[in-house]
Design goal:
By secondary structure, this protein is mainly alpha-helical. The chain has 4 helices and no strands. Bound molecules: fe (ii) ion (FE2) (2 copies). One fe (ii) ion binds next to helix 3 and helix 4.
């Protein structure tokens, strides 16, 4: 499921993988009988909400640590994501949204954000690393140039 949405940042990829596994678990439960849905759904949803809250906060700490220039915008997107997720969970609990609809929303919510937004900080980090490497090489060249 994670195929194609790997950012190349181990910690974030592991957390995204965990989010997607919980979403997958949610989908499996949503396909069960009415009784199964009733008895398991609440705990899976709570696990998803808890882990999503944990991941978004951890990602924000990571973005601060790398001095990501679009940190504020990304944090606002996270805030919106969580409130939309909470709103849809509430709609589900009030039976205004089916388990299937909520499951579709959750999977789209996660993958779209990773592919469209998290991919931007991954690209920023790749550029930083490339620049750092080139800087090191340039630094290594200068002394030999000065000796020539
Ligand atoms: Fe993320
Ligand atoms: Fe994010």
């Amino acid at each position: 499921m994670l195929e194609g949405i790997v950012l190349g940042i181990d910690e974030m990829d592991a957390q995204h993988q965990m989010l997607l596994e919980i979403a997958e678990h949610f989908r499996c439960v949503s396909k069960g009988t009415e009784a199964e849905v009733q008895s398991h759904m609440a705990s899976v949803l709570n696990a998803l909400l808890d882990y999503a809250t944990y991941h978004l906060a951890a990602e924000e700490e990571f973005l601060k640590a790398i001095d990501y220039p679009d940190f504020r915008e990304h944090k606002i997107l996270h805030h919106r994501l969580l409130s939309t997720l909470r709103k849809n969970c509430l709609l589900f609990r009030e039976q205004c949204l089916s388990a299937r609809q909520l499951s579709d929303f959750i999977e789209q919510w996660i993958t779209q954000h990773i592919l469209e937004e998290d991919a931007k900080y991954a690209a920023y980090l790749r550029n930083l690393r490339t620049e750092a490497k080139e800087g090191v090489h340039a630094g290594q060249r200068s002394p030999s140039e000065s000796l020539a």
